[in-house]
Amino acid sequence: MKKYLFTLLAAFSLVFGAFANDPAYENAMKKQLTAMKTIQTAEQSQTVSNAFLRISEAKPEEWLPLYYAAYLHTMTAFRFVVNKDQYFDQAMELIKKADQISPNNSEIVALQGFVIMGKLSVDPMNRGQEMSPQAMQLFGKAIALDKENPRATTLMAQMQLGMAQFFGQGPEKACGLARVGLELYAKEESKVNEEYLLPTWGKEQAQGVANSCQ
Fold it and tell me: Signal sequence: where (predicted)?
């Protein structure tokens, strides 16, 4: 009986191990992460986003496909379209789904704050009082969850810089955060290889804030 149970447990371990290290999932993700780097239009962004959503349907236990689809909606709003709120709202819905899969995930929380920051930028005069504290709170939470997350620190730096410019204050606090963000990106780059699926975006944003301090 014990031998039978041991054999059964071993079989389950092999099955679940195969799913956990699914080469088809990893290859599909790497293909779309490569495609992300070549996006030049809203249509191309939508195509890659749709591919991530198809991966999510095939692997509903994984948070990263939803995360990247949300990120692409967010960047499409910033870069390409006029009806920005629609894309930010779609991104937020995807983030909520990712959060259900991986709660208290620093990357997801930071991206949520990024979307709030985007919605604020659409109408800062009317949305600033409500959304500025929301974004700051989310970036603070993301940093608390993972102090090594360069995106959390960089987005906080961007938010600090925007607020400083709006209120006519100096950029010192934002500059300090941007420098920390660049240091964290350097650490992150030492871990990245061709098998790396986790987020790595945002270094240019950190550099942009740091450049404003010179």
Answer: 1-20
Average pLDDT score over residue span 70-82: 97
- How many whole angstroms separate alpha carbon 81 and alpha carbon 88? 11
Residues 4-28 have pLDDT tens digits of 433 333 333 333 333 346 899 999 9
Mean pLDDT is lowest, of 11-15, 48-52, 56-60, 110-114, for: 11-15
* pLDDT at residue 57 is higher than 60: yes
For each of the domains in the chain, give its residue range(s) and CATH number, in order of start. Answer: 26-103 (no CATH), 124-214 (1.25.40)
